[in-house]
Design the sequence.
């Protein structure tokens, strides 16, 4: 029994993404975040996202170092090498990607153009059954669990049998429990 949500990233994403120029100050970025009540901003100098700045980045990279936010530009502290997803991908894939990489926000990019953002809150609002994956991710991040292979565990429902497991193996683009993985390899 294969479990599929049939809900796409496009169905859940926020398409009105607030973007900022990489050269504005952290002070200006925080004013924007406060005004529109968001916890992150996408940094963009062309069509593709260059990075993201979050409340956590500001606390860890500016406040905790007692730096003057008006003297720091967002490109100095933004997170780069963003993991993104296409709008046509299934929401369960996005939830797994977020869990696997311990992230709460995914830029949605279509043909190199930023078209939206998907947050863990968006996933939970549209597809509550995927909440298990995100909640498990929070627990794992808290405990910093790492498997013997050095890989981070990916929790969720096995795509072959549907059972919820703490660790799924990615085999040919599908996430399988250990038992289904062994069955597949035994064939």
Sequence:
């Amino acid at each position: 029994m294969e479990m599929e949500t049939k809900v796409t990233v496009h169905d859940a994403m926020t398409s009105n993404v607030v973007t900022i120029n990489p050269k504005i100050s952290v002070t200006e970025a925080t004013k924007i975040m406060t005004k529109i009540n968001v916890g992150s901003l996408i940094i963009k100098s062309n069509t593709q996202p260059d990075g993201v700045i979050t409340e956590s980045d500001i606390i860890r990279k500016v406040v905790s170092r007692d730096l003057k936010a008006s003297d720091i530009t967002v490109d100095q502290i933004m997170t780069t090498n963003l993991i993104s997803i296409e709008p046509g991908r299934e929401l369960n894939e996005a939830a797994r990607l977020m869990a696997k990489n311990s992230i709460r926000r995914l830029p949605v990019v279509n043909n190199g153009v930023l078209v939206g953002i998907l947050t863990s809150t968006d996933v939970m609002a549209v597809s509550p059954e995927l909440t298990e994956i995100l909640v498990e991710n929070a627990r794992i991040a808290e405990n910093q669990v790492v498997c013997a292979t050095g890989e981070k565990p990916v929790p969720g429902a096995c795509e072959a049998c549907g059972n919820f497991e703490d660790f799924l193996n990615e085999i040919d683009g599908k996430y399988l429990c250990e038992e289904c993985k062994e069955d597949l390899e035994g064939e």
Remarks:
- The beta strands are 19-20, 40-44, 49-54, 105-110, 113-119, 156-157, 164-165, 169-171, 174-176.
